[in-house]
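ok posting inputs for the magnesium ion job
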Amino acid sequence: MTNVAVVGSQWGDEGKGKIVDVLSKEADVVVRFQGGHNAGHTLVIDGKTYKLHLLPSGIVRPNKLSIIGNGVVVNPEALLGEIENVKSQGVDITPDNLLLAENTNLILPAHSVLDNAMEEARGAKKLGTTGRGIGLCYEDKVARRGIRICDLEHSDYLKERLENMLSHHNVLLKGFGADTLNVTDVYDELMKSAEKLLPYVGVAWKRLDEAHKKGEKILFEGAQGHMLDVDHGTYPFVTSSNTVAAQAAAGSGVGAKEIGYVLGITKAYTTRVGTGPFPTELDNAEGELLGQRGHEFGTTTGRKRRCGWFDAALVRQSVKTGGIDGIALTKLDVLDGFDELKICVGYDINGERYDHYPASAVHQANAKPVYETMKGWKEDTQKARSFADLPAEAVKYVKYIEELIEAPVAILSVSPDRDDTIVMQDLFSA
Ligand code: GDP
Ligand code: IMO
Ligand code: MG
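and the output
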């Protein structure tokens, strides 16, 4: 028996929420370990849609423990709002099935104000952040200025910490011409959430150690994707955390060996929200068609996602840098009906051929995709229940992807619905 970590292998929105939901049937504990409410994970169960941002996707199943790990950055109001919202959809959320790690850093109001002010100041060079203050919160965490959830229990200490943090924020806010903040207002605002949040707070690493001792199955739920990883992604057009499975250990308080099978969620084509390089982007009718068929609008910000062909060179790089054991290939159904499909197998950068995506932002911006073309299929894949049900051309497409990315397809997803999923392997015993 092993644990499973679910991570995105592209630029996010690969369908992690759906696959975590499918796998959580087998799991006892589901843990988020990085990111914040920049994430938007969609679950479709019997025609009912749940959009989750901070809550682990296991929350909708009864008798599963959901943990928000220390690597996540939590906006108290956003979390409380989401709890209420998901409860109103009939999901039971209590301290019995939701645990918030005591050492989680909090997103405060100045973080999103500054995130947006900095984006505006970047003008045409903006990063296209979600404006949720994610990067600013991680900055404060690393600078040792952060406020952690455990600080909410000690009012004098909390005020001292806020004083220290605001002395920094107010300089920045002034510089951007925004209103400065005072400790009393921020403290009073935080206290309104504290009372409601504290019942969920506990020692996550200890609960995970218990899970380990009891032989419970742990499912780690990543947010964003490898190409948005602060080290391995398309820097500076990235998020501010490590999105690779290795972060699951540090971001929840378990040993590296506990991570187990690493499943990279991979869309059968490519999308990206926000700015930054995207070699296979289709700025044409084919791109529009992918967007329409795939309903490619952001779950968090509603922004239209940029769409393009499958980039095998990029996903292979994610497989290697992230230690991905196998992938869940999602949204194969979106490709039904195309005459031809292109797959990027490398790049041409200033006349030189690359089989990887170099780190330099200058090279990344100049990379032209090198394509191979495959025949498409006309049949509807949504009703396929096994690999054998797929049209021959779809099988060829999937098999070629496996070969190019050097990793097997362990799960195939052919619609947003929980039930339209072909699971090839029991990952918890892989
Ligand atoms: P996440 O951020 O990785 O969890 O992905 P999102 O939920 O942001 O975006 C994925 C979108 O694709 C959601 O609207 C899902 O309901 C949908 N989706 C997931 N898997 C499939 C699939 O196999 N086929 C289709 N057509 N849609 C899918
Ligand atoms: P899920 O978990 C897609 C992108 C933003 C922006 C960059 C930095 O749903 O896959 P940030 O607000 O994190 O500082 O923005 O990262 N981004 C995502 N794109 N899916 C996500 O999450 C994302 N979370 C952040 O669009 O380009
Ligand atoms: Mg998403």
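notes: Residues 8, 11-13, 38-41, 127-130, 132, 134-135, 223-225, 228, 239-240, 273-274, 299 surround 6-O-phosphoryl inosine monophosphate (ligand 2) (CB under 6 Å). The chain has a mean pLDDT of 97.
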